[in-house]
Design a protein that fits this description.
Elements: H1 10-22, H2 34-40, E1 45-49, E2 52-56, H3 67-72, H4 77-86, E3 91-92, E4 98-103, H5 106-110, H6 117-120, H7 123-160, H8 164-197
Antiparallel strand pairs: 1-2, 2-4, 3-4
Length: 199
């Protein structure tokens, strides 16, 4: 669960904690709500440092809530060697606790693709993506209308014959229309790519 207590009132947070404590299965919780997490009485703690995850079978400590402590924490070369040797298998340290150190996949550690789209894009971008299918229909109609007008202008250019003045005037209108048509095609391609990225 990712920040499950966000946007909940106090009584709902208590009910959620009670329900999770009554659940017989495994629950993974990511939260900044210390009171909520402590109420769950976790049996394992996962720390991330230096591009690696370290899962420890232990209760929470005050240091788990201090950001500078977490930022300064790093895993030793010994942890890295154990991780590679154990290939993510559980190991027992001197205290009898189980510790597993796993490498964080490179795309999680280094790539913005792991950030949910909603978190990485502005409200205007979300609105544009949401409205893209409706906008595509409007742009398609605009393209159809512009192409019809371009066809009419082409016919008028042919009909102008030897009237150079009229032909120049019609050609200028046709160039303006072509610029509008090119812009409409570009907008269509942009919206189409936006819809495709949402799939």
């Amino acid at each position: 669960l990712d920040e499950p207590s966000n946007h909940l009132d106090a009584s709902t947070v208590e009910a959620l904690a009670d329900a999770l404590n009554a659940f017989a299965g495994t629950v993974v919780v990511v939260s900044h709500d210390r009171a909520f997490v402590e109420r769950l009485v976790p049996t394992h703690v996962l720390s991330v440092a230096d591009g690696r995850c370290q899962l420890e079978k232990r209760p929470l400590t005050d240091a788990d809530w201090v950001v500078s402590s977490i930022d300064e924490r790093s895993f030793s070369k010994e942890d890295e060697q154990r991780s590679a040797a154990a290939a993510a298998a559980d190991e027992h340290d001197d205290t009898g606790e189980t510790t597993t150190t796993l490498p964080v996949p490179a795309r999680v550690a280094e790539d913005d693709d792991d950030v949910p789209r909603e978190a990485s894009e502005s409200a205007a971008d979300r609105k544009r993506r949401y409205n893209a299918p409706k906008l595509i229909a409007k742009v398609e109609q605009k393209i159809t209308d512009l192409e019809a007008r371009a066809g009419d202008l082409d016919d008028q250019l042919v009909a102008a014959g030897s009237d150079a003045g009229l032909a120049l005037e019609l050609a200028a209108h046709r160039d303006e229309l072509q610029a509008d048509l090119d812009a409409a095609y570009a907008e269509y391609e942009s919206l189409d790519a936006l819809v495709a990225s949402a799939r």
